[in-house]
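Propose amino acids for all 198 sites.
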């Protein structure tokens, strides 16, 4: 009888340890399961893409919005952004919903000058660009990492960087609000076409 009463307690302890081990490390469910909708362009409300204008550089124009994205060859996985608002009204970048999508379809946040690595995810606040203004920023893909109960923007791990093998197309999707309308601008970069760079 004594052995029978100990088994449920042992089994409960084992289950608790399994649950703790599953939650303690490794990728989150969002990171582990590929976000298929990220790769389907028809799911985004604005489908115009960037086009290459030279080695490791892409430009984009939509109405009075002009964007240039360039690979920073001195810093790994850094994209230099230059965004010009040539309209008569302010525009707002929604950083909380701006994502980097790798060649395997995995989606991550984008750290930038206003919310660099190891700052709280909550610092991904909107940026307003006034009429006729131009901003420059450095964008870096970032995963969420929890420290002391706070979710932070962290650099990608090596396995996350290599997801999908060598990426032939990297994408940044950026919601921008203009005149009360939010459009998701999709910046596709065909990395294969930029190499070799010697």
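Proposal:
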């Amino acid at each position: 009888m004594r052995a029978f009463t100990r088994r449920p307690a042992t089994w409960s302890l084992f289950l608790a340890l399994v649950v703790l081990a599953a939650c303690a490390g490794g990728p989150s469910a969002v990171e582990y399961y590929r976000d298929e909708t990220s790769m389907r362009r028809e799911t985004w409300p604005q489908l115009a893409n960037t086009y290459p204008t030279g080695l490791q550089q892409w430009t984009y124009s939509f109405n009075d919005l002009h964007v240039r994205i360039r690979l920073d060859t001195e810093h790994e996985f850094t994209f230099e952004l230059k965004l010009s608002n040539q309209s008569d009204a302010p525009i707002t970048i929604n950083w909380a919903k701006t994502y980097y999508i790798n060649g395997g379809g995995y989606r991550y946040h984008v750290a930038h000058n206003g919310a660099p690595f190891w700052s709280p995810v909550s610092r991904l606040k909107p940026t307003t660009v006034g009429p006729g203004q131009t901003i420059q920023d450095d964008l870096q893909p970032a995963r969420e990492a929890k420290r002391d109960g706070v979710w932070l923007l962290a650099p990608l791990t090596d396995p996350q960087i290599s997801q999908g093998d060598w990426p032939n197309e990297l994408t940044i999707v950026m919601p921008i609000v203009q005149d009360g309308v939010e459009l998701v601008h999709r910046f596709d970069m065909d990395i294969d076409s930029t190499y070799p760079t010697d």
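Residues 28-194 form a domain with the Immunoglobulin-like fold (CATH 2.60.40). Residues 61 and 67 are 6 Å apart (CA to CA).
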